[in-house]
Specification:
- Among the domains are: about 120 residues, no CATH class; about 100 residues, no CATH class.
- The chain is about 65% helix and about 0% strand.
- The protein is mainly alpha-helical.
- The radius of gyration is 30 Å and the shape is globular.
- The N terminus is likely disordered.
- The termini are close together.
């Protein structure tokens, strides 16, 4: 056998993996000068860099809107903010991409530079400091060595070693089942409903008022319905009168019909038995607290323990490395799916138990926390579907009956708590029918059918005049803010035709006076009776609203800078990590509505104020307080999504698409950096990180196994050629 033949056979083993073969082919083409442009990689990186540019831009424009400025005031300082944010976010993205590819996060060249710098600092500390400074340090070191030889120190060392060896076992045993996780969450959160009782804002008060008026109507009590002096619940969060039916009705879908009826019924029973709504508030908060414990523990169990894996079958198939064998190597289980370790479990549990956002959300009676906890439940079941997609010889594993029922119930709770859940479920159903079409029946039955039934039922109630539909003006927050900002800053810049079209809909003078860049509610005339009437909800007609879009577009074209300022000012805080929340979750703990209750306000008021102040002060600490802000988790989730795009994890991205849709909801919401809008993304962030780590570790194991097989086959061929 010639030397050339040996070389060819040694360098082209038949067992080379496809990615290795592609890499060698690419290297060959480079050597021949035939390197092709990687269009796919360029497109993926372009998409990821656009996300980083958006985050950097939002960070740079933050100072404008903190002090009432404009983007036209851009200076060199803002350019420096932009570049600094760009460098940091790009470094994080590159680190995530390298980790996802099984590579060292810090490149070797940079690591060697850091080592040299550390060595230089260490040398300077040993030789460069004056003798009188080092002398106390040497004395302290000698004292520590003497203390380490004492009996007490040795006893403390034994105790510490025992704690280190037993604590991981205790944590793994306590978190190995859903019951154990539920007990941890219940005990860890129990102080919240016991000491704070309940937390709420204006929404539930309006819902209770709506149900009370409807109940009075059902029992035969005559009440005002229309007329100039009539002021009914539909006028508080104004619903245009053209949407009202001819026959009197007082129920609306403004705050979701099912929740309005349920909350109102519980409050009515509370008034009947106790004379106030307070007992009803406590009961509703306690029920939501138990629902939160259930949803979070069930989802933790799915992500941490992978309960759908059968130990014996998966061990035989090489899918799950046995936890009892500490010496297992990645190449021994090339397709391994690992359960979470001690640190992963500890971090996830501590986040839910210590972060003020989920803690206060457990008892906050607004629609967003209920939707967020239901979304966490739904997200965990979707993860189970994602992980069982290609099992058992390529055939997807069927979803168990209990998990299938939970999938339906979680989708229903999402639908009855947030209107935008209908659009998220519809879009996600379409995406999953493409990404996982073999289980199309599961997605249609569990996601689309509940949406059609609940949404269709609401449409039937609205068409029959039993319920008043929500005003579509609620979804036009960005447009309203742009018109109002122009009306405040440049009223002469509004074209006459646009002003004539808007005259039946809005009072432009009142819009300008009501404009507040953080919140669109004042422009919509939301609030109590003494509000400024900028929205003519009493007299506006459906025909008048048909001219709204054309009038808005004329104003935007005539005032592009002011319109851009209105848009950015309403949404930049969701993506600016340095921006403090406009309304944080601690607001509901000490809101004016809580402080005006019958007896809840007297239940440990000092403790209530202290805990809310502690959370608020923690959030104001630079860097350390970021973990208490929802926009931190939104930004990091977007970076992980960009890394998944670059790593081409398309099926994982298909399952994570609701998170991107929720970010779109934030942008179009009426308020900037409103923390309750970020709850779903915040609650599942730890699970997104765990998924990325797990898939990256699995990819590294596959790569290590492939390299091991390639080296083994190469050694076998070399030995065989040597024998020849």
């Amino acid at each position: 056998m010639t030397e050339a033949t040996r070389t060819t056979r040694a360098t082209t083993p038949p067992s080379v993996q496809p990615d290795q073969a592609a890499g060698r082919a690419e290297a060959t083409e480079r050597g021949r000068g035939l390197h092709r442009v990687p269009i796919g990689a360029i497109a993926r990186w372009t998409l990821a860099v656009l996300a980083v540019l958006w985050l950097s831009f939002c960070t740079a424009i933050g100072p404008f809107y903190w002090f009432g400025g404009s983007i036209a005031d851009w200076t060199m300082a803002n350019t420096l903010y932009f570049l600094l944010a760009l460098i940091i976010y790009m470094a994080l993205l590159i680190a995530l991409v390298r980790f996802g590819g099984g590579r060292i996060i810090i490149p070797p060249s940079l690591r060697s530079t850091c080592r040299r710098a550390a060595k230089a600092i260490q040398t300077f500390c040993r030789t460069g400091w004056p003798r009188h400074i080092l002398k106390p340090l040497y004395a302290l070191a000698r004292g520590w060595r003497r203390f380490a030889t004492t009996r007490f120190a040795r006893a403390m060392g034994r105790c510490w070693r025992a704690i280190r060896s037993r604590t991981p076992r205790i944590i793994m045993r306590c978190t190995s089942s859903w019951i154990g996780l539920a007990l941890i969450m219940f005990i860890g959160w129990l102080w919240v409903p016991v000491t704070l009782l309940s937390a709420f804002g204006a929404d539930i008060r309006s819902q209770i008022r709506e149900f009370s008026w409807a109940w009075n109507q059902w029992t035969g009590l005559q009440q005002p319905y229309t007329g100039f002096f009539a002021f009914v619940p539909m006028d508080i969060y104004p619903t245009a009168h053209y949407l009202w039916p001819q026959n009197p009705t007082y129920l609306t879908d403004q705050h979701n019909l099912v929740l309005t009826v349920f909350y109102g019924a519980v409050a009515a029973a509370s008034r009947y038995f106790t004379g106030s709504n307070d007992a009803g508030y406590v009961v509703l908060s306690s029920l939501q607290f138990l629902f939160a414990v259930f949803c979070c523990s069930a989802t933790m169990h799915r992500f941490l323990n992978l309960p759908w894996l059968k130990k014996e079958a998966d061990h035989d198939a090489g899918m799950l490395p046995p936890a009892s064998e500490p010496g297992t190597r990645p190449e021994d289980y090339p397709n391994a799916i690992t359960r979470a370790g001690v640190w992963q479990r500890t971090i996830v549990i501590l986040f839910f138990l210590l972060c003020p956002i989920p803690v206060f959300a457990t008892i906050s009676l607004t629609k967003s926390p209920l939707f967020a906890f239901a979304f966490v439940w739904w997200f965990g079941i979707a993860y189970q579907l994602h992980m069982t997609r290609g099992r058992h010889g390529g055939k997807p594993q069927r979803l168990p009956a209990r998990a299938f029922a939970a999938f339906i119930v979680s989708a229903c709770v999402m639908l009855i708590s947030a209107k935008y859940a209908w659009y998220i479920l519809l879009a996600q159903t379409i995406i999953m029918l493409i990404a996982d079409r073999k289980r199309w029946k599961t997605y249609l039955a569990a996601m689309l059918l509940p949406a059609i039934i609940l949404h269709g039922g609401l449409v039937m109630l609205v068409s029959s005049g039993k319920v008043i539909n929500g005003d579509p003006i609620e979804s036009r927050g960005i447009q309203l803010q742009q018109i109002a900002r122009v009306a405040q800053l440049n009223p002469e810049g509004i074209p006459k035709d646009a002003a004539d079209k808007l005259a039946p809909i809005f009072n432009l003078d009142q819009m300008g006076e009501s404009y507040f860049q953080q919140d669109a509610d004042p422009v919509k005339s939301s609030g109590i009776q003494s509000k400024k009437v900028s929205y003519r909800w009493r007299s506006v007609t459906k025909e008048d609203m048909a001219n709204f879009n054309s009038a808005w577009w004329q104003i935007v074209k005539a005032n592009p800078v002011i319109a851009a300022d209105a848009f950015f000012a309403e949404c930049f805080g969701y993506f600016d990590i340095t921006d403090l929340p406009y309304v944080s979750m601690d607001y509901y703990v000490t809101s004016d509505y809580v402080n005006s209750t019958a007896w809840i306000k007297d239940w440990q008021p000092q403790w209530r104020a202290q805990i809310a102040t502690f959370a608020r002060d923690w959030g104001k600490i630079p860097v350390l307080g970021w973990v208490t802000h929802g926009n931190f988790y939104v930004i990091m989730t977007l970076l992980f999504g960009a890394a998944e795009v670059i790593r081409r994890r398309w099926r994982t991205l298909a399952w994570h698409m609701p998170l991107l849709l929720l970010m779109g909801v934030m942008v179009t919401s009426p308020a900037n950096n409103f923390e309750r809008h970020m709850l779903p993304v915040t609650f599942v962030f730890c699970f997104v990180v765990l998924t990325y780590w797990r898939e990256s570790a699995r990819g590294s194991s596959n790569r290590a196994a492939a390299e091991s097989r390639a080296h083994a086959s190469g050694r076998d061929r070399d030995s065989a050629s040597g024998q020849d």
